[in-house]
Amino acid sequence: MTLTAETQIDRVRKLCLVLPGASEKLSHGEPTFFVAKRVFVMFANNHHSDGHTAIWIPAPPGAQAAMIAEAPAIYFKPPYVGVKGWIGVELPPIGDDDLAALIHQAWKLTSPKALLRPRR
């Protein structure tokens, strides 16, 4: 079964909006997720007819090339933000657990330190 772009964005939305401080707004015509006014997930639905239904997320320093080499059917270097080490993630082939882990990692990389501290 092929999931539609709308189904994919719903999938991403559920994973993003459970994170503390996360919000969603349109940016460049696509749903984009923010924490403390900083982007941690950008949805890309066939951006400039590139054929990808994907998200673009920040990755840890040096991880981009390794991820692309390890799974080129899932990961790619996205336009604009790829030069900053962000990674594109194809949504159809990635499982929910792996997607959730990547989104959580992107949130942690972007969040202010105060949000990362355990609450007392």
How would you portray this structure in words?
- This protein has 120 residues and is α+β, with helices and mostly antiparallel strands.
- Helices cover 33% and strands 26% of the residues.
- The chain contains four helices and six strands; from the N terminus they run αββββαββαα.
- It has helices at residues 5-17, 63-70, 96-110, 113-116; strands spanning 22-27, 30-35, 38-45, 53-57, 75-76, 87-90.
- A six-stranded antiparallel β-sheet has the order 1-2-3-4-6-5.
- Helix 1 packs across helix 3.
- The model has no long low-confidence stretch (mean pLDDT 91).
Structural key phrases:
alpha+beta, single chain, globular, 26% strand, 6-stranded antiparallel β-sheet
In the sheet with the most strands, the strands line up as 1-2-3-4-6-5
Strands, count: 6
| Overall pLDDT metric | 91
Radius of gyration: 14 Å
Structural class of the helix and strand makeup? Answer: alpha+beta
Shape call? globular
Poorly predicted runs of 5 or more residues: none
**Total number of helices:** 4
**Beta-strand residue percentage:** 25-35%
Q: Could you describe the largest sheet, including whether it forms a barrel?
A: 6 strands, antiparallel
One letter per element, helices H and strands E, the order comes to HEEEEHEEHH
Question: Helical amount among residues, as a percent range?
Answer: 25-40%
Distance between the first and last residues' Cα: 44 Å
